[in-house]
Design brief:
The protein is of the alpha/beta class. Helix content is 46%, strand content 14%. It has helices spanning 47-53, 57-60, 66-77, 87-101, 107-110, 117-124, 129-137, 147-164, 172-178, 211-217, 220-227, 232-244; strands at 2-8, 18-26, 32-38, 82-84, 114-116, 191-193, 199-201. The strands form 2 sheets. It has a 5-stranded mixed beta sheet, sandwiched between helices. It has a two-stranded antiparallel sheet with strand order 6-7. The longest helix has 18 residues, at 147-164. The protein is globular. It starts with a strand and ends with a helix. The model has no long low-confidence stretch (mean pLDDT 94).
Length: 246
């Protein structure tokens, strides 16, 4: 399983970039392989983002771009399941966007299971990562909002959650289902599923409607989606559904 955390230029999945990534790859025998790397986002880091993670333009000006590390990072993650804190809603969708911009295959995400420690925490206690670390591990999280500290804290919190709650199974399938807030076809949650497993739109004027039905009745809606400020992966899924109609 890969535990990971991102520090970024902001919170817009479609347009913001990674400035630091930390990955803890936990092997079946318990061995942990840790990799942390700063990334040149090829755009200015806003002051409000620096105020959170303390990474400046100067800090990353000589660092590799994501495109330069995408291949090796993907190889490191292939065959793994994923775990993070608020990762299902933010880190995973943004990471997928970066891979797509770099021209890397993102099928590794489709085949994986996802465990979101924040969702487990919120279902049990309703707190933040700092509070989760204090509550479950009995320690203060030093250097919060640095990718490596947050990633290791996430790993420790999940281990403590498994120890604390007898009803949590130490099983990726169970944890993925438990920490999910509803299955979606895309990482950003714009495309959901109905009770029959058909893709539905989860936002806007067509919320709750079948994607196929909307595309048949209003063909221009697809063009609007492709020109809109939606993540590239979301557009990819909409396109796959569109192509099925031919």
């Amino acid at each position: 399983m890969v535990f990971f955390d991102l520090e970024t230029t902001g919170t817009n999945i479609a347009t913001d970039r990674i400035v630091e990534i930390s990955v803890v790859k936990v092997m079946p025998d318990g061995e942990k392989i840790i990799k942390t790397r700063r990334i040149n986002p090829e755009m200015p880091i806003p002051a409000e983002a620096t105020a959170v993670h303390h990474i400046t333009d100067e800090d990353v000006k000589d660092c590799p771009t994501f495109r330069q590390v995408a291949k090796s990072l993907r190889e490191f993650m292939v065959g793994c399941d994923f775990c993070g804190f608020n990762s299902n809603r933010f880190d995973l969708p943004l990471l997928a966007e970066e891979f797509m911009r770099a021209g890397a295959d993102v099928d590794l995400f489709r085949k994986a299971k996802y465990v979101d420690v924040q969702n487990i925490f919120h279902k049990k206690e309703e707190r933040t990562l700092v509070a989760a670390y204090r509550f479950y591990c009995g320690k203060e999280l030093e250097a919060a909002h640095s990718a490596d500290a947050d990633t290791m804290a996430t790993y420790e919190v999940l281990c403590s959650q498994l120890d604390r709650y007898a009803d949590l199974e130490n099983n990726v399938d169970f944890l993925s289902e438990f920490s999910s807030r509803g299955k979606t076809a895309d990482f950003a949650g714009r495309i959901g599923y109905d009770e029959n497993g058909l893709e539905i739109i989860t936002f806007g004027k067509h919320k709750g409607k079948s994607v196929e039905e909307v595309f048949r009745k209003e063909p221009s809606y697809y063009d609007w989606l492709m020109n809109g400020d939606f993540p590239a992966y979301t557009k990819k899924i909409f396109t796959e559904i569109k192509l099925r109609l031919r």
